[in-house]
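Researcher: We're teaching a course module on how sequence relates to structure. For the next exercise, students receive a sequence and then see the predicted structure as C-alpha cells, so they can try to spot secondary structure elements on their own. Here is the exercise chain.
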Amino acid sequence: MASVDRSAEVMGALFDVHGVRAVVTGAASGLGFAMAEVLADCGATVALADIDADLLEGATGALQDRGLAAHGVNCDVANEASVEALFAEVAERFGGVDVVFANAGIAGAPGWGTEGGEQLDMVEQSGFDRVLAVNLRGVLFTMKHAAKAMKREGAGRIIVTSSSAGLRPDPVVSHGYAVSKAAVLHLVRQSALELAPHGVLVNAICPGPFKGTRIATGATLDPDPELERRWGAMVPLGRMASPEELKGMVLLLASPAGAFITGAALVVDGGVAV
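Model: And here is the predicted structure for the students to work with:
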C-alpha cells in the first residue's frame, strides 16, 4: 500500500500545475478547450481566449459551473492590439502568466486531395493571407506578448499548436494551412534558442486528425461519419483521435515533467508522420 501511495505522490509532483496561470487561445472548442479543461481540472487558473464570443461564453461557463478557475477573454489573435489587450487583462487579473498555449488556428479551403479542393493554380490571395494571418501572424503575436511577460519573471512555457501537416505534405489541407503550420515550427525552434537563457521553454505540439475540431470537420463541430471514416483511413492506428487524447501532452509541457524540453515538435498523430 505504501508503494502505491508513493507512486501517486511522485506522479502528482511531476505533473503538478496547481496555481499555474495559463492562457489558451482558440479555447472555446476542440483542442483548445481540451487544453484549458485539463489545466483547470488539475488546479491551474486559465484564461480562455477566442474570437467567437458565444462559444467562449459557453466554454468558460462550463468550467466555472464546475468550480474551476476559468476566465474568458474575447480575442482576435490576427490583431496584435487584441492580443496585447489579452495579456494586459491576464496580467491585471492573474498577476502574471506562466504558461501560454498559442493554439488558435483556421483551416482555410479543403486541400487538393479532396473532391473540389484547392488546386495550386486556383489559390486566392485573400484566403491564403487570412490563414497565415491567424495561424502564423497570430502565433507570432501570442508568442511575442507571452515572451515579454515571461522574460520579466525569468521563467515560462510557450506551447504552439502546429500539425502533422507542418511536418510532411498533406493533400487534405489547404496550401495556406500546410505552409503556416510548417512555418510556426521554425518559429518555435528560433524562439526556443533565444528564450532559453531567460528560463522560457518553447515547444510545439503536432496533432494529426482529431475529432471535434473545425480543422477536421470544417464550419461545424458536428461529427460526419463519412468524413471521420476518410480521415481515419489515413491514420496507421486506423481512427481519428479524441481531444481527450491530447491532455497528457498538455500536462507534460505545462508541468515540472517537461522542465528540460524546449525547441521540440511533439507529434500526436497516430503514426501519420512516420
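Model: If you want an answer key for the exercise: The domain at 2-268 is CATH 3.40.50.720 (Rossmann fold). Residues 236 and 271 are 5 Å apart (CA to CA).
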